[in-house]
Amino acid sequence: MSKTVLLLVEDGFRDEEVIYPYYRFIEAGFDVKVVGPEKNKEYKGKFGVSIKSTLAPEDADINEIAAVIIPGGYAPGKMRLNKLMVNIVRNAFISSKIIASICHGGQMLVEADIVRGKNVTSWKGVATDLKNAGGNYLDQEVVVDGNLITSRMPEDLPAFCRTAISLIK
Fold it and tell me: What is the pLDDT of residues 52-82, one digit of tens each?
């Protein structure tokens, strides 16, 4: 099994929802590739943390990964407008890769049309979007439904990362 994880970014990401999984997955032995709309570009979080992308979406090979992590903040609202970023999520889901989404990351799940009939959670402001897309919204720290892992907010990061890492291994 692959030890590569894709971490999706765009300007306005929720800082701790990028940094915490980034280092936690590296600590667990994964190769974390940061995917932004452009390769080798610095993306800035809501509170000023920046991270440089290592891949553009067209460079990401779904066959060579174990999972996709979608952090929240304002970034998912921007990423959902980028067809190539959305295709990463959709294609990874179809290929039965783990999709781990937290907070506003649920916007990407809606755009990829992968929540229909699934139990999911997110930041409460995305709950209606998930329900309208056919998801069964649960207000829980972490929700697992098949290869889909979702969490609500930064405070859920320990459970989110622990659950994702255990399901990938």
Answer: 999 999 999 999 999 999 999 999 999 999 9
Q: Assess whether pLDDT exceeds 90 at residue 96.
A: yes
Structure tokens belonging to residue 165:
């890492």
Identify residue 59 by its one-letter amino acid code.
Answer: D
Catalytic residue among 24, 78, 80, 104: 104
Return contacts of 23-29, CB within 8 angstroms, 24+ apart: 24/161, 24/165, 25/69, 25/161, 25/164, 25/165, 28/165, 28/169, 29/3
The dihedral through the CA atoms of 146, 149, 150, 155 has a sign that is positive
CATH topology of domain 4-168: Rossmann fold (3.40.50)
Under DSSP, the state recorded for 14 is -
- Alpha-carbon span 134 to 61, nearest angstrom: 28
Q: Report d(CA 28, CA 165) in Å as an integer.
A: 7
pTM strictly above 0.90 = yes
Beta pairing class for 67-70 and 50-52: unpaired
Question: Is position 104 annotated as part of the catalytic site?
Answer: yes
Query: Torsion-angle region of residue 93: left (phi > 0), alpha (psi -120 to 50) or beta?
Result: alpha
